[in-house]
Amino acid sequence: xxxxxxxxxxxxxxxxxxxxxxxxxxxxxxxxxxxxxxxxxxxxxxxxxxxxxxxxxxxxxxxxxxxxxxxxxxxxxxxxxxxxxxxxxxxxxxxxxxxxxxxxxxxxxxxxxxxxxxxxxxxxxxxxxxxxxxxxxxxxxxxxxxxxxxxxxxxxxxx
Length: 159
Ligand code: ADP
Known about the structure:
- This protein has 159 residues and is α/β, with parallel strands linked by helices.
- Helix content is 42%, strand content 19%.
- Bound molecules: adenosine-5'-diphosphate.
- Adenosine-5'-diphosphate binds next to helix 1 and strand 4.
């Protein structure tokens, strides 16, 4: 069985992420969406909230598992007995950052490959950061994230 780990902050999950998951499943039998626990970024949603939103968004896809991990991604990939890391690429600005991470992971483990899928042009401008910024100012973000995520954002910003 071909398994890929799709790691990220997913704060929150967007249609951009979901597109990578759907397209990734054309290549892999299973995708483990893995939420990074100790990212240096300050998240809006807790790990449990993020996992719950991803589960809801992927509830109709059998081949998706939602998990979270602490520490080094490479160690997690080994633990899960996978050998592919799946990432998405949007603009050229993603490239430098992704190249740095992929190269570091390659030094840490030669058996693990990082595979990139290009964003669907419809989603190229979607990032969790701009979704949060828009939602914070009361914009309707239902074109960018699933309905339940839009509701969670609205609730978070009205607290
Ligand atoms: P991180 O904090 O690790 O960058 P993100 O949750 O922001 O995590 O993103 C996880 C992965 O999904 C990254 O590879 C990112 O480039 C990709 N991604 C995010 N949004 C999109 C999008 N709109 N189209 C394609 N890939 C995307």
